[in-house]
Q: What sequence folds into this?
């Protein structure tokens, strides 16, 4: 494309370009290193991790770390729990956000702007502030140690961001379609279900990613609200591998790899789609 | 096919449709409102209530008025001012070091160099990795004996510059600031990159035709266009810094002697180590007030610049 | 002994296991400095540290990042200076912290830091790192809980090098051998409001005894209940410690376990400052006296 070529090739000093590349490559190396580090320490013993061989490839490849993470560490179950909690939370957050955004942006009524600002306040509330009150209420209702114990708060936390993203995408849907649906006799609900929901597809991926990032690694609530191991999620399970006084760090590394590698694999393969969605979502923000 | 109405019917029907419309709006908003108020808003009210009490989390609390707030600022064993100062320092570096670097990367990648997609992917990775890994990694870098940092300094002949990075009161906070800033460069970079990509090529073309260099295009065309995104990033950076927790816990454990305490570690100590839930609620309330105040201030600051 | 599970005269829990603070030593390193046994008197002990330093060996490793590790050293020093009863009074029975004996003991501890008996890097290390260093032969001594016996004895390379003993008496007019820091701290309790509370309590009692028994056999704890059956399989380190305990006549529970949660945190923050040399013995007792009692 001539236009784009012109604005990048024109007046770019080759020396500067080389320097820029060096910077980018160094920074890339600095960012990839933690992944290499995580993989290697998941296969080492405490002795190697803490002194003998901090950076290099494992001298002894302890695949047993993975075995112990899966067996005594129970990472398989925690993985499933995390997946369950995260996906349902994303689903609820998405549904609630779409409905709320529809009301705020597509229906004309007086409190619309105020309601929007109200939800945006949620972006600035620190989550730790809610932990004690919510815990007290849930424990009085005997509602601890269920999947819903985490799903409900997680949905709430991701709500503000989801509404923000939906608002952005909602603008792209032409009002003509609403009109057309109205003339065809659809009420508000019909318009919502038949027009809006299908056309918000780009928003699903964007919200999915933001919400996933928040729920998958969430520790504080998961630790306090779930005390039985049947419902435990990954971050808590990994912390539980630390002993009271001493810790075997190899299996923790293995557990971390188990927790992180799906994120990384999904991220790399869907990288293109995600970046496009992320970009689209953020521009609207 | 339109029926003929008389005035009375009009009003009734309007009231009925208004009512139905109001009901629909309410129903559409209902799930979001329930979640939001139940999990985010109501707890703030409860926190406010509990912050005026002395409460161990089990027995009924005793009302003590604003004593918690007073203790927060005056008690010798509660390092509120230190924690606040540390959080603000982290916020400062976040806004004035991390964000400019993220912006630089976003601008550079927006120039369509080769390998753009690769760099974009790689730079976002630290955001996906658990802070436990990042914390442990940096601990290995900071270790005084076999850590990469001290070893590199020795190799360069700068033995005097070696330190016990996480244990020395002078360098402890810095040792936390660096990984915190490093981890989220990619997050902000991606946000800004989105904006940069959204700048219409026509604008760029126009500027280049006027003889602008790449840097001038960035400065006078791109940055003004992505101001709203920069504003969002600043708000996230500041509120995120106020809530910093994981890396402080792992790298310095709020030490040495509580010098790198941050509000979140203080909150956790109050709740789970000292059973002072009233004080914990007080800290929560303070955090909320601070986050709001900063969000408003930052929004106002950015508004002024848009003439 | 049951102090930690008792409140206002009633028992509320079953002790699970028991541990004390032990002075672990790497005998290979001590041999290099010319010692075949762990020194039994305080004067010999200090001389041993000096000799170790002369050979370029670091005597102690202590993790500053986890303040409880510092108390493992400090509380033993205090107890062997002022005696178990006095220390217990301060920890548990409401005696004031304004105690010159404690101040002197803290100064003794700081003397050791000044003489560089402690690894300076320790202030930034976690206990795992310090323990790994000890097992790698970096420190001659490691004062920490006897739960470590299992790990040390289970490591083939290290188990023949390590021995454990009691910390020597510093002020023999007030303290003597047989006064230890430790005791049963972990307890199992049953909520009175749970269904079948009485059956659960009986079960908890038996469970406590069994955990104790098998913990002892595995070497990760000491018997809070009198052991039964064949205990010869217990590793030599734990057996040594059991003998020390059997010959002991008083035990003071670890400070941060014996005190209430809030007080314990205040105490630990002062211990922190002592290890970082931010305050001295006088400052320690003044601060605690005004903040606690």
A:
């Amino acid at each position: 494309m001539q236009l784009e070529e012109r604005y990048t090739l024109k007046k770019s000093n080759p020396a500067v370009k080389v320097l820029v590349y060096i910077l980018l490559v160094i920074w890339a190396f600095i960012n990839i290193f933690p992944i290499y580090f995580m993989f290697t320490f998941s296969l080492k013993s405490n002795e190697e991790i803490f002194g003998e061989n901090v950076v290099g490839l494992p001298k002894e490849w302890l695949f047993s770390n993975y075995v112990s993470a899966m067996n005594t560490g129970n990472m398989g179950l925690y993985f499933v729990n995390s997946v369950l909690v995260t996906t349902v939370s994303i689903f609820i957050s998405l549904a609630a956000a779409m409905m709320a955004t529809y009301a705020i942006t597509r229906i004309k009524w007086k409190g619309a702007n105020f309601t929007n600002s109200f939800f945006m306040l949620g972006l600035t509330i620190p989550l730790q502030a809610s932990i004690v009150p919510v815990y007290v209420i849930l424990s009085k209702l005997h509602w601890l140690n269920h999947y819903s114990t985490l799903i409900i708060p997680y949905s709430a936390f991701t709500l503000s961001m989801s509404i923000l993203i939906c608002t952005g995408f909602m603008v792209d849907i032409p009002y003509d379609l609403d009109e057309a649906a109205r003339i065809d006799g659809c009420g508000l609900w019909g318009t919502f279900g038949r027009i809006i929901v299908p056309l918000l597809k780009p928003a699903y991926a964007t919200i999915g990613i933001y919400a996933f990032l928040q729920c998958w690694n969430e520790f504080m609530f998961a630790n306090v609200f779930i005390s039985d191991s049947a419902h435990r999620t990954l971050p808590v399970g990994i912390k539980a591998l630390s002993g009271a006084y001493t810790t075997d760090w190899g299996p923790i590394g293995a557990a971390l790899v188990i927790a992180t590698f799906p994120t990384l694999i999904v991220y790399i393969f869907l990288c293109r789609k995600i970046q496009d969605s992320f970009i689209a979502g953020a521009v609207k923000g | 096919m339109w029926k003929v109405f008389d005035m009375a019917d009009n009003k009734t029907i309007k009231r009925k449709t208004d009512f139905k419309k109001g009901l629909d709006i309410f129903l559409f908003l209902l799930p979001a409102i329930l979640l939001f108020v139940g999990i985010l808003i109501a707890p703030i009210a409860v926190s406010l209530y509990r912050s005026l009490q002395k409460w161990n989390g089990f027995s009924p609390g005793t009302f003590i008025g604003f004593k918690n707030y007073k203790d927060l600022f005056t008690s010798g064993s509660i390092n509120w001012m230190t924690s606040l100062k540390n959080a603000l320092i982290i916020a400062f570096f976040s806004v004035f070091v991390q964000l400019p670097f993220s912006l630089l990367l976003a601008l550079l990648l927006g120039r369509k160099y080769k390998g753009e997609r690769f760099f974009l992917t790689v730079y976002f990775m630290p955001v996906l990795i658990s802070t436990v890994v990042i914390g442990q990694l940096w601990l290995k870098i900071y270790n005084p004996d076999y850590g990469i940092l001290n070893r590199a300094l020795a190799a360069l002949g700068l033995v005097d510059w070696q330190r016990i990075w996480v244990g020395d009161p002078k360098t402890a906070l810095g040792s936390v600031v660096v990984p915190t800033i490093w981890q989220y460069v990619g997050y902000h970079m991606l946000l800004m990159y989105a904006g940069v990509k959204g700048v219409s090529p026509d604008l760029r073309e126009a500027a280049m035709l006027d003889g602008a260099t790449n840097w001038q295009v960035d400065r006078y065309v791109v940055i003004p266009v992505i101001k709203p995104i920069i504003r969002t990033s600043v708000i996230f950076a500041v509120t995120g810094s106020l809530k910093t927790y994981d890396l402080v816990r792992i790298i310095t454990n709020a030490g040495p002697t509580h010098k790198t305490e941050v509000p979140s570690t203080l909150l956790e100590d109050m709740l789970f180590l000292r059973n002072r839930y009233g004080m914990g609620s007080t800290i929560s309330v303070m955090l909320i007030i601070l986050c709001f105040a900063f969000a408003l201030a930052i929004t106002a600051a950015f508004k002024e610049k848009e003439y | 002994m049951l102090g930690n599970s008792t409140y206002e005269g009633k028992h509320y829990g079953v002790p699970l296991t028991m541990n004390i603070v032990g002075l672990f030593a790497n005998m290979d390193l001590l041999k290099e400095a010319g010692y075949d046994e762990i020194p039994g008197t305080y004067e010999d002990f200090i001389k041993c540290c000096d000799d170790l330093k002369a050979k370029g060996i670091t005597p102690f490793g202590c993790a500053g990042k986890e303040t409880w590790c510092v108390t493992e050293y400090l509380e033993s020093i205090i107890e062997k200076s002022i005696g178990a009863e006095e220390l217990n009074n301060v920890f548990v029975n409401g005696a004031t912290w304004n105690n010159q004996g404690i101040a002197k003991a803290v100064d003794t501890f700081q003397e050791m830091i000044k003489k560089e008996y402690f690894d300076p890097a320790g202030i930034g290390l976690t206990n795992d790192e310090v323990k790994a260093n000890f097992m790698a032969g970096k420190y001659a001594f490691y004062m920490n809980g006897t739960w470590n016996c299992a790990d040390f004895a289970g490591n083939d390379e290290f188990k023949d090098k390590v021995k454990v003993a009691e910390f020597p008496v510093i002020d023999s007019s007030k303290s003597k051998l047989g006064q230890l820091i430790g005791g049963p701290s972990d307890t199992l309790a049953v909520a009175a409001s749970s269904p079948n509370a009485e059956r659960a309590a009986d079960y908890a009692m038996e469970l406590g005894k069994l955990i104790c028994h098998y913990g002892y056999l595995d070497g990760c704890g000491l018997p809070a209940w009198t052991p039964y059956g064949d205990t010869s399989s217990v590793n030599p380190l734990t057996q040594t410690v059991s003998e020390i305990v059997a010959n002991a006549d008083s035990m003071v529970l670890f400070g941060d376990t014996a005190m209430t949660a809030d007080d314990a945190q205040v105490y630990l923050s002062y211990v922190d400052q002592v290890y970082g040399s931010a305050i001295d013995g006088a400052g320690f007792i003044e601060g605690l006296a005004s903040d606690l009692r």
Notes: Residues 43 and 296 of chain B are 21 Å apart (CA to CA). Chain B has two domains: 2-50, 67-306. Chain B touches chain C through 24 residues (CB under 8 Å). The domain at 67-306 of chain B is CATH 1.10.3720.10 (MetI-like fold).
